[in-house]
Amino acid sequence: MFGAVAAGKAAGGFDTIMDAAAVMAKVKEQTYKPIGKNATIYDRLFAEYRVLHDYFGRGPNDVMKRLKAIRKEVKG
User: Fold this and answer.
1) pTM for the full model?
2) Scanning 2, 7, 19, 36, which has the fewest C-beta atoms within 10 Å of its C-beta?
């Protein structure tokens, strides 16, 4: 979705993340409950998720900020 927002509406993407989510994301009315015996695996997966989150949005890799700057430069 963020790639589609970085492209912008004029290039076939979306102007906001909310616009992208309205079209690209489907919310289901379903609840998932954790399985207690799997807590160790959940913790490991969540740790990997945090690494990916920080890699793409924080710290030395500010790829999303650079993509937004390029978009702004191109749009003027």
Assistant:
1) 0.42
2) 36
